Amino acid sequence: MLSVENVTKTFGQNNAVDSATFTVERPAMIGIIGRSGAGKSTFLRMMNRLTDATSGVLKFDGRDILQLKGAAKRAWQSDCAMIFQQFNLVPRMDVVSNVLHGTLNKRSTVATMFNLFPQSDIHMAIEILDRLGIAEQAPKRAEALSGGQQQRVAIARALMQDPKIILADEPIASLDPMNAQVVMDALRRIHEEDGRMVIANLHTLDTARRYCDRVIGMRDGRIVFDGTPDQLTTGAARDIYGADASFSEAATSTSIDALEGVPA
Ligand SMILES: Nc1ncnc2c1ncn2[C@@H]1O[C@H](COP(=O)(O)OP(=O)(O)OP(=O)(O)O)[C@@H](O)[C@H]1O
Ligand SMILES: [Mg+2]
Fold first, then answer.
1. Which end of the chain is least crowded, N or C, by CB within 10 Å?
2. Residue 234's domain spans which residues?
3. Mutate to test the pocket of ligand 1, among 15, 41, 52 (most ligand atoms within 8 A of CB)
4. Residue whose CA is closest, atom 8 of ligand 1?
5. 158 belongs to a structural domain
6. Tens digit of pLDDT for each residue in 124-179?
7. CDD domains this protein is in (predicted)?
8. pLDDT at 257
9. Does 50 sit in the ligand 1 pocket, CB within 6 Å?
């Protein structure tokens, strides 16, 4: 389904992503972990063609993604929706309009200028918001919502594109533990119920272990771990984070587990 072969991104002398190679056979929920600067964001940005790779091949369902141009590239970008740490909503615009912006690439300039949305899209937006438990927020300005609600609006906007893949770059890094859990639960449900692939950069081990089927660990641009949460032992984590024996998992932990008493 997805194959990544020696994908590399070089900035000057620095290999931000260095020969990344892995394959995914079926839609999975994948967590990418690693310390700051490991190359996690750069990898996601290459994947949805926000930035060009320096070399390598990335294929999805037979499509040669890194070679796509023009309309084919835009179609791919619509197939793999991106979610960001800072939500990237239009703060003063109402929630439902923010969600409808997920369909922008399908609409004419005139329709966009006058904010004209087909009735069927409006229904779909409300349905998606309802699915995420925030339909009653639809008329409010985005800026009036809590962080967790705003991130769910961003997920709703992504779902309007009906994407095959959701790429999430630190989707819960700005959220408190309760909201973080609500957002991760939403991503997991979307993966399980819709069969969409989710690839999320996560800065905490416990979240990756708890929500993902597979964890990829990056260090200095290289993939140094690729396995199941069970295989992600403290030793493996220490290697990914490049830490010595004093490495403590708690330092990479949100308090979600502590909150619920779930053993790590
Ligand atoms: N536009 C750029 N120009 C030059 N160097 C860059 C650029 N973007 C990223 N880098 C470098 O590439 C490396 C990987 O950065 P990246 O943002 O992918 O890391 P990350 O794993 O997402 O880190 P974080 O956890 O802090 O978000 C870093 O050394 C960074 O300084
Ligand atoms: Mg990053």
1. C
2. 2-255
3. 41
4. 42
5. yes
6. 999 999 999 999 999 999 999 999 999 999 999 999 999 999 999 999 999 999 99
7. ABC_PhnC_transporter
8. 43
9. no
Q: Is residue 93 part of a domain?
A: yes
* CATH of residue 21: 3.40.50.300
Which pLDDT belongs to residue 204?
87
| Domain membership flag for residue 180 | yes
Q: Is 100 exposed, middle or buried (0-12, 13-18, 19+ CB in 10 A)?
A: buried
What residue's CA is closest to ligand 1, atom 5? 11
* pLDDT tens-digit readout, 225-243: 999 999 999 889 989 988 7
| Protein residue whose Cα sits closest to atom 18 of ligand 1 | 39
The domain total for the chain is 1
DSSP letter for each residue of 183-237: HHHHHHHHHHHH--EEEEE-S-HHHHHHH-SEEEEEETTEEEEEE-GGG--HHHH
Cβ–Cβ under 8 Å, residues 252 and 205:
yes
Give the closest residue (by CA) to ligand 1 atom 2: 11
Residue 13 near ligand 1, beta carbon < 6 Å: no
Mutate to test the pocket of ligand 1, among 7, 11, 201, 205 (most ligand atoms within 8 A of CB): 11
